[in-house]
Design goal:
Strand content: under 5%
Distance between the termini: 23 Å
Radius of gyration: 19 Å
Largest sheet: none
Length: 313
Amino acid sequence: MNDDLPARKPQGDALMSAVSRALEAQRDFEQHRPTRMGRGVESMAAPIGAAVKGVVPPAMMRAALRGADTAAGLTLRREIAGHDLGDIDACDAAALSVQKWAMGTNAASGGLAGWFGGLGLTLDIPATLTMAARNVRATGIAYGFDGDDERERAFRLMILELAAVRGLEARSDALGRVNALARRLSDPVARAAVAQAGDWVLETLIERVGRQLGISLLRRKAAQIVPIAGGVVAAGINASFQTDVSRAARYAYRQRWLMGRKLLPAPQNAPEANMSEANAPEAAPTTEPAPETVLKPEADARSQQDRDPGGRR
C-alpha cells in the first residue's frame, strides 16, 4: 500500500466536485443489488445447482482461492497506476478500465469452457476466481493501494465476499466488515494493531469466503453444465460476476482513498474492526447496527448539481 499518500489533492471547487461524485458513487453502491443477469440466472439455475454441487467440491474452492491472489499478483500491469493518485476522478477512470479488461477476458474464457459442459466448469471456476482476484488487486493499484501483507490480503478477501453475498442482511454484514477494516487500515496506529493477527485469521477468511463464493458461482454457472449451449451462458455470467467484483472493489478502495485523505468520516456505527472478526460464522447475526450510508463531509461538498454527467461509478 502507499502508506505515504500524496499530499497534493484537488483544491476549492474542483475538490468539492470530485468528493461529491465520489460520495454519490459510494451511496449508489450501498443501495444497489447484484447485476440483473447474475440474479436472474441464479434463480433459473437453482434446481441445477444442487445437482452439480459435487462437480466443484469445497476443497477445490479453497485451494483455488489460496492460489488466486498470488497468481493474480504475478500478472498485474503496474502501469495501471500511471495516473495522478491524488485525483479521484483519474483513479475511478483507471478502475473502470480494469473492469472492462476483466469482463472481456473472463467472458472469453467462460465462453470457451462452456463448450465442454461439466468438465469445462471445473476448469472455469478456478480461472474465474483468479480473474476476480486480479480484478480486485488491479483496482486497488488504481487507487494507490498495492500492499501484499496479511492485512491487505484479508481486505481483498472481504471484497470478494462482498461481491458474492446475497440477501440484505448478509450484504449489510459484509459492508460492515469492509468498512471496519478500511477504517483501521487508514489509521496508522490501528493498522499496526491489525498486523498482530496471525495466519489463522486468513485461513478462517479463506474458509468463509471460499464457501460463499462456491455457493454464488455454482448458482450462477449451473446452466453452464450443458455442453455447447453453456458457452453462451458462461460468457455472460462471467462478465456479470466480474462487474459485481469491480463494483465492490471500487467501493472499498474509494472508501480508503477518501478516509486516508480525511475527506470522509468513517461510519460511526460500523462494528469495531479487528481481524479476529473474520473468525465469526458467516451466518451469525451481528449485534451491531448495520452500517449507515457513507457519511458526508461539509454540506458544500455534496451538491447534487455536481453529479457526473457520464454516470460513471
